[in-house]
Amino acid sequence: MDNENTVTTDKIVQDFKIVLADAEELLRATASEAGGKVSAARERVEESLRRAKMKLADAEDAVVFKAKQTARAADEYVHDNPWRAVGIAGAVGLVLGLLIGRR
């Protein structure tokens, strides 16, 4: 379940980056447009983009922190239970080998 959350969070971060890039491109494309409404809209969008970039950076930091925490926990488990870890790795390898061999 936790791995699914990480994958989902990574996908959201990636999609969010694409949206930000598209919005920045739109701002550049409308840079030559004049008018009070256009200028006000551009300012609001620029402010929203700035806030979104900050939130994206925070989300990335959270994902990196969680990944490091998970890796640290796995490392501690392997050091505390080396034979159990070897057994689990062997079982996973066997299952993967059987699944690949079926194809």
Chain-wise SSE layout:
Layout: H1 2-29, H2 36-80, H3 82-102
Report what the structure shows.
There is one protein chain. The chain is mainly alpha-helical. The chain has one domain. It is built from 3 helices and no strands. It has helices at 2-29, 36-80, 82-102. Helix 1 packs antiparallel against helix 2 (36-80) and helix 2 (36-80) packs across helix 3. The longest helix is centred in the middle third of the chain and has 45 residues, at 36-80. The protein is elongated. The two termini are 28 Å apart. The model has no long low-confidence stretch (mean pLDDT 81).
CA-atom Rg in angstroms? 23 Å
Per DSSP, the total helix count is 3
> How would a crystallographer describe the biggest sheet?
none
The low-confidence runs, each spanning 5 or more residues with pLDDT under 50, are: none
Category from helices, strands and their pairing = mainly alpha
- How many domains make up the coordinates? 1
Shape: elongated
* End-to-end Cα distance: 28 Å
Strand content: under 5%
SSE ordering:
HHH
On the 0-100 scale, what is the average pLDDT?
A: 81
Q: Let me know the number of strands.
A: 0
Provide the helix percentage: over 70%
